[in-house]
Amino acid sequence: MYQFGELSQETLEQLSGSGVFFTVNNGDKVNSMTIGWGSLSQYWGQEIFIAPIRFSRYTFEMLKNTDEFTISVPTNKQLDEALKICGTVSGRDGDKLKKANISTKDAKTMETPVIDGCDIYYECKILGYSDLKGEELDASVSERWYAGGDMHRLYFAKIVAAYRK
Ligand SMILES: Cc1cc2nc3c(=O)[nH]c(=O)nc-3n(C[C@H](O)[C@H](O)[C@H](O)COP(=O)(O)O)c2cc1C
């Protein structure tokens, strides 16, 4: 039974549009960054969200202290300005949610909250990760996306819950 089947088209459209909120709670702090890449997929007989996070992100540091994240998808452009802020400002420099004028609400299954005012939510438990390596990528990809050496770590996470608001 695919939990995310019915939600996937809108989610993929939003990912390739202005992005979605990737939210982490490391116990001390909640932070959200915008992601524009990602996959809803099937691995290990489970429904898996794959999220690519560059090593330079504050989110990357926070993910060392948690094994969960949430994905919040606004489908009606209502949070485009907040997505822009969460996609350019770093949580290293203060409370980004406040700067973006967004608030959180409780998730259904985990400590990490979701972003209020979105339309679709995923609650994800990380099962593993894999780091991309420049030398293993086609030159057309490595030269365009990784010339500076700031690689992506791909987080594979079980979709524990997927629902509309
Ligand atoms: C539309 C959009 C999509 C983005 N997609 C990604 C992504 O998939 N992976 C990533 O590492 N950064 C992505 N970024 C950049 C991060 O959101 C940005 O660097 C952010 O400030 C990192 O926040 P942090 O330092 O608080 O973790 C994207 C930015 C925008 C505006």
Question: In summary, what is this structure?
Answer:
The protein has 165 residues and is of the alpha+beta class. The chain has helices spanning 8-15, 58-62, 80-86, 96-99, 139-145, and strands at 20-25, 30-35, 39-43, 46-54, 68-73, 104-105, 114-115, 120-131, 152-164.
**Proportion of residues in helical segments:** 10-25%
* CATH class type: Mainly Beta
Number of helices: 5
Approximate strand percentage: 35-45%
Rg from alpha-carbon coordinates: 15 Å
Tally the structural domains.
Answer: 1
State the low-pLDDT regions, or none: none
Q: Give the overall form.
A: globular
User: What's the mean pLDDT score?
Assistant: 96
* Span between termini: 20 Å
The largest β sheet comes out as:
7 strands, antiparallel
- What is the string of SSEs from the N terminus onward? HEEEEHEHHEEEHE
CATH architecture: Roll
Spatial sequence of strands, sheet with the most strands: 2-1-5-8-9-4-3
Bound molecules: flavin mononucleotide
Can you characterise this structure?
The protein is built from five helices and nine strands. It has 165 residues and is α+β, with helices and mostly antiparallel strands. It has one domain: Electron Transport, Fmn-binding Protein, Chain A (Pnp Oxidase, Chain A). It has a seven-stranded antiparallel β-sheet with strand order 2-1-5-8-9-4-3. Strand 6 and strand 7 form a beta hairpin. It is globular and about 40 Å long. The model has no long low-confidence stretch (mean pLDDT 96).
